[in-house]
Amino acid sequence: MSQAEGVLRRPRPLWSLGLLRSEITTTFRRWRTLALLAVLAGVPVLVGIAVKIETGDGGPGGGGGQGGPAFISQVTHNGLFLVFTSLAVTLPFFLPMSIGVIAGDSLAGEAHGGTLRYLLVAPAGRTRLLLVKYATTLTFCLVATLVVALSALATGALLFPLGEVTLLSGTSISFGEGLLRALAIAVVVALSLIGLAAVGLFVSTLTSSGIAAMATTVGLLITVQILDTIPQLSAVQPYLFPHYWLSFADLLRDPVYWDQLQKNLGLQALYAAVFGSAAWARFTTRDITA
Amino acid sequence: MPPARAGRWPVAQPYDMGEPMPQQPATGPGGMPPAGEWAIETRGLTKAYRGGQLAVDGLDLVVPRGSVFGFLGPNGSGKTTTIRMLMGLIDATAGSARVLGQPMPAAGRRVLPKVGALIEGPALYGYLSGRENLRRFDAADPDADPRTRDARVDRALERVGLGAAASKKARAYSLGMKQRLGLAAALLQPRELLVLDEPTNGLDPQGMREIRALVRELAADGTTVFLSSHLLDEIEQVCTHAAVMARGRLITQGTVADLSATVLGSPGPGRLTVTTPDPADAVRVLKEHGLTGLQTTDDRVTGELPEADDGTGPPELADINAALVHAGVRVRGFGTERATLEDVFVQLTGEGFDVAG
């Protein structure tokens, strides 16, 4: 051991990013994460095959339009619509549930395994660790959404024709511009999840059981989703984080309706700020006894 | 300073906190602590858990730099809670702690990169290999140079004898291997202080010997080692200093030699033991030579050698032996015994060591 060598080295600010890189690599190499992504990738395939079978059997074109997820009637005419349908199908539960698992487990799982104390004496720094965990969860939001979108695009391209996209307002845009809009929608969907990610992170600072934190986060999600459907609660509904989630469809209008989209993003930012601060206040003062 | 609060227990205080120690311990090459500087220093450190139960009660602990410091106490006596406070994992209810001269937890960012710690057993990512585990812990240290990471990780693995198992998933490790990996994590960087909480837990005798050899080697490099254990012989074998805790309180601290001496009240010659088939005659002769507290167990006779302060000086052991033989006592064994730490502990707490507080 050469003591002097160690003392002389100067730490550099960039070295701090090593923890983020380690966290992202570790998260995406876990079987659990890969399984979540596999489930998310499977949803568009199932929806695509279901639509194909329905229309292939000589049914009434599957395009009744009443009932069923958004855009499903257009899928047979243009595979690109499978992207929108799949995001509309996964956004209420599948996507946020997977976020709940990742966010809920982020700190509680480390506490449960005892690795949290070793990260903290390394010293990772509580604020830095919290930021790294949140950044990793947000990365997962984006990756999960893109996995759904890409799987839907591939399935749609295989099973259905591609071509010009007819927007909700009736005008047509080229397939290329349609792809761009699909990408924009995926990003908006990912951003829709940052509020929930912050809630999950906060819950994760409260307990030393990863399972409890995941279950609580997912339970909260389901509760809020139910509250959002009760008409008598319309006064509070604009403050519930999933309330404007499906506003991403407004990106398929010409011109785009920004009103709900802005409300959605503003609400997510508010949740991220409030629950992020709560998580910080809790985590930086908490006794780590696990 | 630790105070009369220790209640019915006698308090040995071989050195005072504010002043240099009266006797510097032998600490290995280059290990003399800078005057007045402690690797660890706590004042009135107290932790009350919810419900008011005191896990640690007014702890005044001083660990000299360069020492191998044994932190001794039964399970549940507050050792781990103390270590968690020192490492900034939990907040103290009262009192203060300084580690490497800086206040904790306030200076954690500056202090902790110089501290390697094994706290309450190893904790690993089961789905990562041993090497990946170390890479991750190293990445969490903002002072760790990523360019030397691979080399440092491999060296730490070799040092604890895990080189061959480095690519195995940690979940397949035995308890002893996990313990070694935890130690390797503490050795990723050159450290000024190593805090090792029960480092030989789960190891087989061979592993224990290896870890003790490693601790001695690190201490010889000048690293201060703070070693908590409930194994008395472990502390006795490797430590220069020790502190004893029971029920959240510090009972005593000092050099291991002083502890044995002060507590048993026999700083000089100690207890003489004679093994003989003629115990009755031996007792008579020993009494004539001023030994006190004579006890006979089968063929063993033990007694306290007289104090040296009566002007005559302590009796020469060889003279006593000659007298025994001269009196026709057949001697099989003859020698003095030092008090073991176990004797110290039993005397201090009035209870067996394995009784949790």
Structure description:
The complex is a heterodimer of chains A (290) and B (357). Chain A is an all-alpha fold. Chain A has eleven helices and two strands; from the N terminus they run αααααααββαααα. Chain A has helices at residues 3-8, 17-29, 31-56, 81-90, 94-113, 115-121, 126-159, 175-192, 194-206, 210-227, 258-285, and strands at residues 165-166, 172-173. Chain A has a two-stranded antiparallel sheet. The longest helix of chain A has 34 residues, at 126-159. Chain B is 30% helix and 23% strand. Chain B has helices at 79-86, 108-111, 130-139, 149-159, 175-186, 205-220, 232-238, 256-264, 279-288, 317-326, 341-349, and strands spanning 38-48, 54-59, 62-64, 68-72, 94-99, 102-104, 115-118, 193-197, 224-229, 241-246, 249-255, 271-275, 292-297, 300-304, 333-337. In chain B, a hairpin with a 2-residue loop joins strand 5 and strand 6. The model of chain B is unreliable at 1-36 and 353-357 (pLDDT under 50). Chain A binds chain B through residues 1-3, 5-7, 9, 11, 15-16, 18-19, 21-22, 26, 29-31, 113-115, 117-125, 128-129, 285, 287-289, and chain B through 84, 87-91, 108-109, 112-113, 115, 117, 119-128, 135-146, 182, 185, 189-190, 221-222.
Task: Please describe the structure with a list of short key phrases separated by commas or semicolons.
heterodimer; A: 290 residues; mainly alpha; two-stranded antiparallel sheet; 11 helices; globular; B: 357 residues; alpha/beta; six-stranded mixed β-sheet; five-stranded antiparallel β-sheet; elongated; disordered N terminus
